[in-house]
Amino acid sequence: MLLIFDIISIGLVKYIMFKILKKKFLNKSVSYMKLCAPLVATNAQAGQFLILRVDEFGERIPLTIFDYDREKGTVDIIYQKVGATTLKLDRKQEGEYLLDVVGPLGNKSKIKGFKKAIVISGGLGSAIAYPLAKELKLNGAKTTAILGFRNKDLIILENKMKKITDEIEVVTDDGSNGKKGLVTDSLIKKLEKCCNYDLIISIGPIPMMKAVCEITKKYNIKTIVSMNSIMIDGTGMCGGCRLTVGGKVKFACVDGPDFDGHEVDFQEAIMRNNSFVNQERKSYEKYCNLFKGV
Ligand SMILES: Cc1cc2nc3c(=O)[nH]c(=O)nc-3n(C[C@H](O)[C@H](O)[C@H](O)COP(=O)(O)OP(=O)(O)OC[C@H]3O[C@@H](n4cnc5c(N)ncnc54)[C@H](O)[C@@H]3O)c2cc1C
Ligand code: FES
């Protein structure tokens, strides 16, 4: 009898826990994972995110649902190793399990009815921008992608983006891929040539999104940004992801993560995202020390 219970509970644990079905390194700091998470996949929409915990000692971190397959019950994530939790996640291998994956969270993107759009991303922002670019394409918009990276070794998703956009430009800060410049330089050139764009999506570091919004405001083009605020519960209760948008208090997890970029108080968002830098550094060092020499 005990054995039967054991077998059932082991089976149940495996169903409840979230198996890593595939793992790939996209560059030295960014990885991709396909996770088994049927309930999340069933309801996922472009623009939404999930919150996961690697193990019972881990913190909760939000990651965008990069892609999903409802029939197979899988969701894909792409993450950059920036601190203790993303490093811990990256130590997990195919066939292993994550403790929990909650989602889909946040709102699906409202990007229907646009005719001509530019999607601009910086670094890891390409992973967050990809589902939105795909959705634009599905809704019939002619889409241009401008992807920016620090150097050619950090370029990700160029081929995937090519497949779902009409035009793509990849630029690097140091010109190591042959196209030197910032995404904002490319954007200005495009807008000077033709200004009948009706939507700009800008996703990446907050200073980049702020700079894009300052440009598009002059052209009066609707601009959507995705706010990567620090999140804890992801359900609007802790207040961690508070932002000011159009002079009103908003929570990135339940009111976003997409917002009208012309309304966001970016200065406040930068300040709030830097609130725990010292603690994050200490936790990163502590985590790295655990594996010194391993
Ligand atoms: C809705 C949403 C979707 C996201 N999607 C993705 C994604 O698809 N892929 C991905 O790699 N990351 C994504 N992020 C950011 C991701 O959640 C953080 O990088 C992660 O929580 C860092 O955890 P950590 O413990 O490894 O690093 P920490 O120790 O928490 O932080 C290390 C460094 O990263 C910075 N950082 C921490 N949190 C964030 C954040 N939310 N945004 C920007 N910088 C941060 C810190 O300022 C610090 O410099 C998303 C964030 C949100 C809110
Ligand atoms: S994460 Fe807690 S309110 Fe948004």
Describe this protein's structure:
The protein is α/β, with parallel strands linked by helices and 294 residues long. The chain has two domains: 2-105, Beta Barrel (Elongation Factor Tu (Ef-tu), domain 3), CATH 2.40.30; 116-273, Rossmann fold, CATH 3.40.50.80. Helix content is 34%, strand content 28%. The chain contains ten helices and 16 strands. It has helices at residues 2-16, 38-43, 84-90, 125-138, 158-164, 183-193, 206-219, 252-255, 266-273, 277-290; strands at residues 18-25, 30-36, 49-53, 61-64, 67-69, 74-80, 97-98, 100-105, 116-122, 142-149, 167-172, 199-203, 223-226, 242-245, 248-251, 258-260. The strands form four sheets. Strands 11-10-9-12-13-16 form a six-stranded mixed sheet, with helices on both faces. A five-stranded antiparallel sheet has the order 5-6-2-1-7. Helix 3 runs parallel beside helix 10. The longest helix is centred in the N-terminal third of the chain and has 15 residues, at 2-16. The radius of gyration is 20 Å and the shape is globular. Mean pLDDT is 92; it is low at 5-11. Bound molecules: flavin-adenine dinucleotide (FAD) and FE2/S2 (inorganic) cluster. Flavin-adenine dinucleotide is lined by residues 49, 61-64, 78-80, 82-86, 124, 127-128, 228-231, 257, 273, 277, 280, 283-284.
